[in-house]
## 1
Amino acid sequence: MSFAERHILEWLIYLPMLTAVVLVALPAAWRLAARWVGVGSGALLMIGSAWVFIAFDYSAGADTFQMIKVYTWLESVGIDFRLGVDGIAAPMVLLTGIVALTGSVIAANVDRDAKNYYILLFVLIAGVYGTFVSIDLFFFFFFYELAIVPMFLLIAVWGSSSTFADFARTKEYGALKLVLMIVAASVLVWIGIIAIYVWVDIGTFDILRLRDAVQDGGLSSGAQKTLFPLVMVGFGLLAGLWPFHTWSPDGHVAAPTSVSMLHAGVLMKLGAFGIIRVGMTLLPEGMEAWALVLFILGTVNVVYGAVSAMAQTDLKYVVGYSSVSHMGYVIMGIATLNSIGLTGATLQMFSHGIMTALFFAVVGAIYERAHTRDTLILNGLASKMGWTTAFFVIAGLTSLGLPGLSGFIAEVLVFIGAFHEQPILGALGILGAALTAVYILRLVARVFFGQRDPQWDDLPDLTPREIAAAGALVVPLVLVGIWPAPFLDVIRHGVDALPGVDALVGGLL
Amino acid sequence: MEQAWLIPVFGFGAFAFLALFRKYLPGQGKHLSVLAIIAAFVAVWPVLFDMLDKGVGEHHFPRDWFSAGPLEVGWGIIVDPLTIVMLALITFVSVIVQVYSLGYMRHGNADDPRVGWYFAVHSLFSASMLMLVLADNLLLLYVAWELVGLCSYLLIGFWFERRSAAEAAKKAFVTTRIGDVGLLIGVVLLIVEFGTVDVIEIMNSLGDPGVNQAVVTASAFLVFFGAMGKSAQFPLHVWLPDAMEGPTPVSALIHAATMVTAGVFLVARLFPLFDAVESAQLAIAAIGIVTALMGAAMALVMTDLKRILAYSTMSHLGFMMLALGAGGYTAAIFHLLMHGVAKAMLFLSAGSIMHAAHDETDIRKMGGLRKRMPVTSAAFTVGALALAGIPPLNAFWSKDEILLAVAGGLNPVFVVLFLVAIVLSALYMGRAVLVVFFGKLKPENDGVHESPRIMAWPLALLAVLAVVTGFIALPIGYEGIGTFLVAPGDKPHAFEVVPVWLVASVVLALGGLALAYALYGDEDTSRVDALRERFARAHDVVANRFYMDHAYQWTIDRVVLRVSAFLALFDRKVVNDVGVNGPGLSAVEAGRRLRYHVTGLFADYGLGIVVGVAILGALLWIRSVTG
């Protein structure tokens, strides 16, 4: 391993933390400096993440985590600062890099107390990286919690409250609900983790050694089946699993733009990632026993989220519910437990992360200009806001599964995997994609097309900075849509090593 | 042949280039798009000659795209006669339409402000359609299929400031998307059942032992459902007439070469699948004839010129599906080609009229235009007569082939209904021609003049082709289209003439025209509503499009949106307010109550200790007793 390969992963965690520290030291009045530090750090993270993704060697023998780095921490308990990536974490690292960069560029729109905003944002980013690259259960959980806590302040201080015809949502309510629900769920995860540690009883939190011990019968089938629901609900909640999803639309509506981008784009993936990293890897028999339940809930997510999105009249609620719907595909893909479905699920995590970040960036830009997100009031924006419209439509087309964009490849793999196991649920998933087309196209027709109301005549289009950020998000969407092979090769390496996955070696038959 | 994959590349390249850089190009890069499609058109011919050289048949050139698990997906191509004729039709009509658009998208001396985008999407549209006909696997086919849908959405909604255009675009995309649910389910079922995406492989193993025939049957119906959406078959035809909200050349493209022909092509490409499932074939024939009759009936009562043409397309698509249902593969594709040439010309003629008459499409305000627009009138009349089935014009030959296929392969009921449809075809085409071009010139059309040359020349060229292309059916220089374009697993057959059917179809077509003359031939063209006066009630039903649009709108407003509003409310009130806030509020309330136990009095705590010790003691005692 080269020097860079040995140290890159830890620096993906140190760098955002260091950025936060530097920002703390900056005088609050140096707003411009805070922005530059934030964007510069985002750019470095992007480069580092891309490097990890590119340097990941998918032709190496399966079952090897790469770029492993271990610092002994608490030898007596068996906790080490242990980092490494596999083919599932590598695309997630890349995703985090892209969203961290574009998010910190969009965050430059924040006027009030930009310095503290960036500090919290980078703590959150550090937590996200830490979760994706930790292969020690203790640190995995530590970073998982670290990513969640800043959300409360980011939403409660910088968020926005909304009043609707028959109900109101304050930003404090959104922040509180989001954090309380996620923390409550992580209690379940923590119970599961401690129980795995104690019952496997080899005195380590090392995920790889625990996995091997479980493979050798270190954890009884009964124990696995008992623990799995804790992990499933605990992580599933962060992935928006029905019926524990309501924090997501409300939280996203209240959150400021760049926080929504990071949260829907990356944080929700931590939930699905956790199911794979802890649930599938350490509790394979539990996973198998509960797969059908997870499958059904995922399908409910898809259809329920899409139908709910159709009735929303607030742009952010539409996008929020669409996230609930799209994370359903990830959950379905995981629950197929076969190599095609899981590949689709992982690619969908990446694709949805980019797509939803793009959605929130555009919707945030509209809100900043029009001071409303009401789809019944906004109309005809296309003729004056060409870039805004183009980006929204691209995100919308990705979400409705248009070929040529990343969502299609991911979803069609999930469908093929799903049909192999549960054709009826798979068909419902496809129906969900059609429902997506209905709500997205209705929205586009209403908000962007048609005659423009005079009150919107003077809305300016995106600034060059916003165009650059949104454009940077479009590139991976198109790239994966047209040339998915590099991504699928990396993901295959990860999926093949997962315990309990049907590799479908005999073909699909 | 192996390089045939390059044919769509021109269009994709032009799209990408124009989408990014059109603002910096002279004329927004419109000429680049035209050049790209001309290049594609030119590139088709070496492919044809190469095939004639190497043997007519199915040539397969696989290429890798991506793989996941055991699934291998390629972007390879199939080159067979079906592909070749489709390539020729698509590129040719696209060239004509784009050249014509150079004139049409100019108003006065200035281009439409978004002309670059118009041509960019045109390029993408043709390229996607070319990719569709070349694709060698089900997923690539679906990719192209959806891109075609996207382009129709973008072009129908090209003038998106108009509410009606935005709505029409949405309607087209959503309606075809509903069909696509069926298609995608069918495709995925086939992929999972056969373990491959390769069309040829799947078609060859349909009858293998161990193949679940229930799956094959289900996928045949589901795939056809997708074809119904794109090819505007009843009951998914509702988007087609609204689609004319786009610029008229777009209608020509959609109706002649891209989009609606995709469904017919799909059924032809997967012909063995439908051949294997008899019930699906019958369903195709039934849907086809219903579509044909409904379309013809509606074409007869519309007063909007473009709508008449749109319903005529629907009717002819019905003919093609009917032919496919009857096993008449060659007849269906032959008619697709002939109809494509004629219908492109009709739409471009309509566009020429609109261009001259300030976007007027109401035929009641037209009349006697032949005196002002000779080229347009001649072209329109030739196209109309061709589609009415008058020999020796092109669609006469293909319609005759369909008649033979239907007579040979289906129940006589279908034959009778088809003959009725032939009369109706002649009748509505006769009506349109008589009302628009004959009779007295209306005062409001006084300023009308023939369109510029860049629009007139494509019309003239198409008119000539509409006269001569039908002869490819005949054994001139080779044995006729029936020997070139053969259904998989079928024997080549030369063009047949069965005098009874030939005479019957010509007599019926002429009868239809005569009837049209009797009803609408009067100098006073206000008689356009002749049928309304005579059959008021039936006329209303048809003119209201059988109330199907109303029924769909009602379903969307009253069922779909209400269900979704209910679900959203359920999510907020029940899942969130009860399920999430509930436990939260209970926790707060419990805390509030419990805090009264914290009294701060030593006596209370002492009592607690005593009670606790007593309970523990009791438990220990019980345990020691029970052992």
## 2
Amino acid sequence: MPEPMPREPHLSGGGRAPEDGAIAATGMGGTMDLATAEGETLEKTPGGPDGTGPSEKPRSLWSDAWRDLRRNPVFIISALIILFLLFISLWPGVIATQNPLKCDLAKAQEGSQPGHPFGFNGQGCDVYTRTVYGARVSVTVGVCATLGVAILGSVLGGLAGFFGGAGDAVLSRITDIFFAIPVVLGGLVLLSVVTSSTVWPVIGFMVLLGWPQISRIARGSVITTKQNDYVQAARALGASNSRMMLRHITPNAIAPVIVVATIALGTYISLEATLSYLGVGLKPPTVSWGIDISSASQYIRTAPHALLWPAGALAVTVLAFIMLGDAVRDALDPKLR
Amino acid sequence: MGRYVIRRLLQMIPVFFGATLLIFLMVNVMGDPIAGLCGDRQCDPATATQLRKEFGLDKPLWQQYVTYMGNVFTGDFGTAFNGQEVTELMASAFPVTIRLTIVAILFEIVIGIALGVVTGLRRGRPVDTGVLLATLVVISVPTFVTGLLLQLLLGVEWGWISPSVSPEAPFDELIVPGLVLASVSLAYVTRLTRTSIAENRRADYVRTAVAKGLPRHRVITRHLLRNSLIPVVTFIGTDIGALMGGAIVTERIFNIHGVGFQLYQGILRQNTQTVVGFVTVLVLVFLVANLLVDLLYAVLDPRIRYA
Amino acid sequence: MRGATHARWAACAVAVALAATACGDDGGGDSGGGDGSGIVSSSWGDPQNPLEPANTNEVQGGKVLDMLFRGLKRYDAKTGKANDMLAEKIETSDSQNFTVTVKSGWKFSNGEAVDAKSFVDAWNYGASLKNNQKNAYFFGYIDGYDKTHPEDGSKQTADTLSGLKVTGPNTFTVKLNQKFSTFPDTLGYAAFSPLPQSFFDDHAGWLSKPVGNGPYTIDSYAKGSVMKMREWVDYPGEDKAQNGGVDLKVYTDNNTAYTDLMAGNLDLVDDVPASQLKNAKSDLGDRYINTPAGIIQTLAFPFYDKAWDKAGMEKVRTGLSRAIDREQITETIFQKTRTPASDWTSPVLGEAGGFKEGLCGDACEYDPDEAKKLIEEGGGLPGGQVKISYNADTGSHKEWVDAVCNSVNNALDNDKACVGNPIGTFADFRNQITQSKMSGPFRAGWQMDYPLIQNFLQPLYYTNASSNDGKWTNAEFDKLVNEANAETDQAKAVDLFQQAEEVLRDDMGAIPLWYQNGSAGYSERVSNVALNQFSVPVYNEIKVS
């Protein structure tokens, strides 16, 4: 190959496709799909009127994606859930009129009763009110930490995978060190010095410890994607690095990042509770799903309802983002067009 | 290839020093551990001073680190506050944890990839939705609760397993704890595999393979799965750390005296010797694991080569 | 409602799971029949310190010492009275010089005789700074302690206590540095145990397998997993083991131990986890014990902080005390394993010993209106908010601190008046206390060393006492305590201590919260299980069927 190849990992170049080495087809229709027409209800049929065949005037891949997205029912449902979550995060008082901090120990662990549809938790606080009010902190932590981790991790990992060489080696070894830091130790050291009572130190901490994983995933994904024929072809045609990265690599390499990030969103919401449990997370009297889930876990044998509702809210949130991720991924997948 | 591996092995040296120094500093930043040794009362100052001297805590930090590293190279990882040698502690904790990790990773590989392939080939079908729901449950219900309920159900009600793992911790006793430990990672592996499969099944080489008339299972295993595994392998590589060092909840519930538990205790008691010792070994494990992952890339995708 | 149905289903599934066990029979284990040779398996945690008597300050190591050693005195498991064990007699004429006579015929399990020297050597060892014994301060009343254990960290100038003299094979004298009439009653504490010569000759060997003079010997000890204690057949004492031995099994979590008990894999859990207290009665029936122990929980205040020490603050402190609904919290959060406190001692002392129910009076009665009024009169909460500090890593304190805060908030009608302030590690928590960095009330707990009212007051509230964490100081209190210590008549001494306690009450030097019970559960295999006043099981009396 004429252009200088990254030393590590070294590419064999030559655009040899795996196994059968078929040359790229435009991929219209699903006729050769392995699981042909098995009722893919969640998927749109490719090749609609907005078809972007190579013969047409090239349009921005990203605007195409957006056009696809708007028509995808999965996207619409998930967007509605997310809008609802945003709404109750901003104005919880609209649907919950009680005070989440008002607790009557005499009612501890009691079940559903008029005015208190979800019953009471171990401290005698109203579970419904706390679930509604918990959205603000939990959604903020989950979304911001996920975004931070995903952006930082995929940019660093993507660059390392694309260029390889010494930069990749250094970055990979740094991630090795980060993996070695136990979360408990990191939390006790870094967060115990923080006096701020906002969510930002906690989010910052999650980004700091979370990015290496996404970085690895993105790196691996980019390393495989750049072997693909269309990337090799673009390179041979003299495309610039930035064009290749944006136009060819990112849309094809982003799927694993989206998958990991959407699931991680749920785990960050739980991690917030772990940090609070360690005494280094959000300062009391913060109301969050994570904290309520972790304290309700104690009473699982006597008052499972106190766990059910905040955990359910967390599950719905994760579901919405998983669906959103799926829809975005589908929209970005050129093979579906 | 050989040169690449050697270069990677050499890179371990700076990482090793960097990681130990970082952890050493972090544990020391936490403050004076002696105050925690006297229960709910103040250590008398004379004894506290004496203890500090005995554990070498009265020396400047850099000197403590140099002394510690010097000892490590002679195989002496120091002693915990209760007088137990850290090497002894590691010798009892690591074998158990390695067995637990193996069980958990086997679950991730076998169940996670199988479910991922099935759901990837049957997107939108009931099985896909069912697995998605299970995923949500696993993410939103704390491991503590899943572990406890399994323990009560299998251990107490049905008597299939012993609720606590014996000190020897043989493989068969670690099946349920391994499953609990793997549960969240299972969700990742399943969805990663599912996405890759769904994406790649439209790839040209799969179409070609189908067009050639290859049997379905051969297309799936040789062509589709093999090329879909890279994100999964990467993920499992990064997950080893969480499984080995971070299994605090699982190890506590099932009474496993493994690395996660000992490390957690060491951190809470600010026992530098224990924490640095354990983390040092863990760093070496990650380094090897990540090297293996990078080498596996070349196996899974022959276009990738290492010089 | 669909959700509620799910909840109910889950609850039923769990209930069924438990009912099944309650009826199930116990598992294997070394069943030795009713002849006293059966082995009891008991939950345990690894001791945090080497198992030397003067170096063990927590309950897990304490359990072993309790089986392994017998001292001059031994506290009755039920009444807490200090009875003579190895002491033939302890005589004094002036409450300062004591002559101890050791019973003859006692032996260590390695055959060595227990004599006066065994005690004096052990005490000298414990008091000597160079041996790093964490309980060294127990010997602080003995003359010469300032030489063997200089507080200021200067070089120790003596290896032995000048106040201890061996005067015969079985007699020795003790000279104290102050009058202390109830000194003999403190001698049941494990730190005062005798030690064999082998302890000094082969210290490492002794540590790996300690040898004592109690009813059990250590058969084997695998650190981190199990210690096997076996009956010492030739034990010369009256309180011989009623079982063949005890296997102390190390658990990572007491919840796991509890589950193992339900599954029939364990005979005794001596610390029922907080989360299971509500189920314990139904899971175990009458095999659940909940008996008073010599432990009191309080809230201490940082008196080094001007904001908490200024005039009028005693009203705020009393107001806080009255804003806490102890009754409700002990019932709901602790499931009655705590009793609302109404003085600063413990019911296990008994009335003769100094416990006086209601001594705190109104100041510990829950009355939200009065609480609000008192706090306003006193100038309000410093900074408008109290933060109750506790350590987050052990003991699940979050639950009760949150409950206390909710109670205060409800009383003051302000949902930000009180918040919990978790501190990551116990060491950090202790550091902040010892360095006087607390800015608000913090949890304080006291487990008695010996059942004396003196032990509940002097170490905690005397000016600059070792555990006076809040640095409360009051000349009147100190004077009364000194007088009480010099008093030889026990009733008069108790009366003086109670007067001191009233001084403490009027200034609300610390808020008494509740008396802690010991709670335990046991399997159907064993019987005659009880906890002593230190919440340690009385192992030697357990019978295995």
